Amino acid sequence: MRTPIIAGNWKMYKTMGEATALVNAMKKELGSFDKAEVVVCPSFAALNTVYLLIENSMIKLGAQNLFWEKEGAFTGETSPLMLKDCGCEYVIIGHSERRQYFHETDESVNKKIKMALDVGLIPIVCVGETLAEREASKTKGVIEKQLKGGFNDITKEDMANIVIAYEPIWAIGTGKTASAAQAQEVHKFIREWLTNNFSSDVSDSTRILYGGSVKPENIKELMHEPDIDGGLIGGASLKAESFVAIAKNAVA
Ligand code: PGA
After folding, report:
1. 137-154 pLDDT, tens per residue?
2. 109 within 8 A of 149, measured Cβ to Cβ
3. Residue 115 vs residues 123, 188, 199, 248: alpha-carbon distances, Å
4. Residue 73 Cα, ligand 1 centroid: separation in angstroms?
5. What is the rounded end-to-end Cα distance, in angstroms, of the chain?
6. For the whole model, what pTM was predicted?
């Protein structure tokens, strides 16, 4: 059984005060909910503030990025050890916004995955195609290239500590969700890729999240698909009401 994950990617939103209000409201609305792993990924500046509030709750902490070295003269970057120090258990790697605006490549994604594993952070590795790539029927080829590059030299054992998120770029922040069938087709493809490149055990146990305009209204349908194990939520994770409703509807 794969335990579902509902992860909130707060992106560059929420000051410390706003993050405090959001996480307190989430805690209240979640109560003793434990049917899915609930993860929040605030900006670096709010990580520790949030951690101190969720320390004894069911909510887990994730970061949105990390650097591939533990320390050094890398102005503006954040060490994976600092993320651990802030209380992080997860880290998003290779989000399409990082690839698009900060020129991250499959190679840098690979280095970051290895560093996350080295310090004991669970990477949530994002893959996904653009609208033009989908319309040119290139989706599977694009995903395969991202998986191949991102997971270069990653072992079967490492895969036990990795989560994948399929996020079609055309569905991120656009209000356009992939249909459950469209998402399932790619999730199934990723699972087959895991069978062929690692093992059927890895394929059976790896959690593959869907991301892209997930809302309380569409999560249930997505979760009914056999290969969708949760969601990576952007916009709807910025309000306690919608994020908690997504978590609850995901397992209803
Ligand atoms: P969205 O973002 O839910 O606002 O579409 C998802 C993401 O970028 O992870």
Report:
1. 999 999 999 999 999 999
2. yes
3. 10, 28, 23, 33
4. 32
5. 16
6. 0.97
Q: Is 187 an active-site residue? A: no
Q: Is 196 exposed, middle or buried (0-12, 13-18, 19+ CB in 10 A)?
A: exposed
Question: Could you give the CA distance from residue 180 to residue 78 in angstroms, rounded to a whole number?
Answer: 36
Considering the domain delimited by 5-250, tell me its CATH architecture: Alpha-Beta Barrel (3.20)
Q: Which residues form the pocket of ligand 1, taking CB atoms under 6 Å from any ligand atom? A: 9, 167, 172-173, 211-214, 232-236
> From ligand 1's centre to the CA of 243, what distance in Å?
12
pLDDT digits (tens, 9 = 90+) for 5-35: 999 999 999 999 999 999 999 999 999 999 9
Q: What angle do CA 34, 230, 168 make, to 5 degrees?
A: 155
Per 3-state DSSP, what percentage of the chain is helix, strand, and coil (rounded to 5)?
45, 15, 40
Rounded to an integer, the average pLDDT of 211-230 is 97
